[in-house]
Amino acid sequence: MLGRWLLLWAALALGCRGETAFLRRADDSTGRCTYSFTVASPVEAACPDAGGVPELRAELAALASRLSRLESRERGTGGSGPRGNEVGGIRDPQQAAPAARLEAAYSELLRAKSRLEEEKGRLEREKEELGRRLESSTQEITRLRAARCPPGGEGPGRDTLRAPGKASRWDPQPLAYQELQSERTEVPVSRLLEETALGRPGSQDSGCGELVWVGEPVVFGQADSIAGKYGVWMKDPEPVSPFTRETTWRVDTVSTEVRQLFQYDAAEQLARGYPAKVYILPRPLESTGAVIYRGGLFFQPRRSRSLARYDLQGEAVTAEREIPGAGYHGQYPYAWGGYTDIDLAVDETGLWVIYSTEKARGAIVLSKLDPETLEIQRTWETNIRKRGVANSFVICGTLYTVSSYSAPNATINFAYDTATGTSRALSIPFENRFRYLSMVDYNPAEQQLFAWDNFNMVSYPIRLSKA
Predict the structure, then answer these.
(1) What is the model's pLDDT at position 190?
(2) Per residue in 272-285, is it b (16+ CB within 10 Å) or e — as a string?
């Protein structure tokens, strides 16, 4: 293309010098394309000398050489115009269709990539959720294994597995009593009939009797921090002014230094979580065995086998006494652990302490206390293993035990009567609604059980048989 323009330019230049230029294009004998033009001389009619115009000939030779190089370059690069088979910048129709198909395929690939990325995100979210569930299940399995195999080597309890071929360390022969085993039984339909026949708990059943029925738990409040996973809540059955039977007390026991005692004017205030006063105890208490009785908080000071009475009016410890030989800080706890070696209780007859000793070999020991001096008045050694039960309480001088702290359908499985010094197996249904029972106490003024179940403060209505 450029060669053509050069020839036209040369013709115009010569035309300016002469008059008319004739351009001719043709293949030579070798097949090469050649261009030639003729210009008539304005003054000569003939050419007397063939080399009469040397300048013109030299110029034509240079143009021809340059034209040849341009043609060679054009053949090598496919032309100096638009690339490929495009002419004037217009795409060849034969190539337009494949290009469109390629663009469509590329768009489809992008859409497929987007779908795969969305699917990948969904699978990653499912993986995270499965990971959380697995972690939760692992923690629950670990907790159950720890519960089924409590430390200390005292042998299996009700919910523990006995290693095959391995004898229990419990040897009742020297003390002439045997280990009692509880069995889980089906709840009979007659339970409903019994409730109907005996009626719901009411004022007509005042005074003492044997426990025959425990109702469903009623939630009064819920702890709002991890410190309240375990705890104890109480009312004073024999209050001292200015406190009343409606005054409610609470201690959250998940801490290395449990010193705070919360006072609420009523259970409704407990449910709202707004204490009327907070007491700071002079010594930290151990676990969930404390009780309120006759204007005092009775508790076990941390890491000791002692009991202390904290006067709520004077806000000072007024009595303290050691329990001889009592296990403490994990020696003889209940099945769930929690340093529940020493547990206090109140019933219609007064103040009690539940514990065990090395002499008793892990069996529950029950002692009656003087609430003013904490002096032990009388002691009973039972044949119920403390590690084999989840918790216990006293009603009318009889000790009752709970079979499991985590099974939803547990039972009141044993009773020990201090009047006769005998024990018997029971199967009174008891519901662990929240699956982690850390405290059970009896309130003789209301004839109800107070319990702490996995952050929840609950009460149980009960029925006692007529004496």
Answers:
(1) 41
(2) eeebeeebebebbb
Residue 11, pLDDT score: 56
Neighbours of 329 (CB within 10 A): 15
**Sheet strands (E) in 206-276:** 211-214, 218-222, 231-235, 248-252, 260-264
Asked if 216 contacts 434 with a C-beta cutoff of 8 angstroms, the reply is no
Per-residue pLDDT band at 41 (split at 50, 70, 90): low
Rounded CA-CA distance 455/221 in Å is 9
Residue 261: φ, ψ to 5°:
-115, 120
Residue 27: enclosing H or E segment and its boundaries? strand 21-27
Q: 3 phi and psi, to 5 degrees?
A: -65, -35
Residue matched to tokens 């065990």: 356
Nearest to 253 by CA among 179, 345, 195, 338: 338
Distance set, CA 120 to CA 115, 116, 124, 128, 200 (Å): 9, 6, 6, 12, 58
- Distance of alpha carbon 460 from alpha carbon 213, whole angstroms: 10
Q: For 362-380, write each residue's pLDDT tens digit.
A: 999 999 999 999 999 999 9
pLDDT tens per residue, range 271-305: 888 899 999 999 999 989 999 999 999 999 999 99
Count of Cβ atoms closer than 10 Å to residue 269 Cβ: 18
Helix (H, G, I), strand (E, B) or coil at 168: coil
Q: How far is CA 279 from CA 62, 81, 258, 259, 365, in A?
A: 115, 98, 11, 8, 31
Question: Do 250 and 262 contact (CB within 8 A), yes or no?
Answer: yes
DSSP state letters, 313-367:
TTTEEEEEEE-TTB--SSSS-BTTBTT-SSEEEEETTEEEEEE-BTTTTTEEEEE
CB 418 within 8 A of CB 170: no
The pLDDT, as a whole number, for residue 158 is 41
**pLDDT score of 7:** 56
Q: Decide if pLDDT at 267 tops 70.
A: yes
Rounded CA separation 247/377 (Å): 29
230 closest CA partner among 465, 467, 11, 454: 454
Q: What are the distances in angstroms from CA 144 to CA 35, 139, 160, 278, 391?
A: 104, 9, 10, 35, 17
Tell me how many degrees the CA angle 459-463-467 measures, rounded to the nearest 5: 140
Residue 15 near residue 21 (C-beta atoms within 8 A): yes
Provide the pLDDT for residue 135. Answer: 77
**Per-residue pLDDT, 119:** 82
Helix axes 54-77, 2-17, angle to 10 degrees: 160
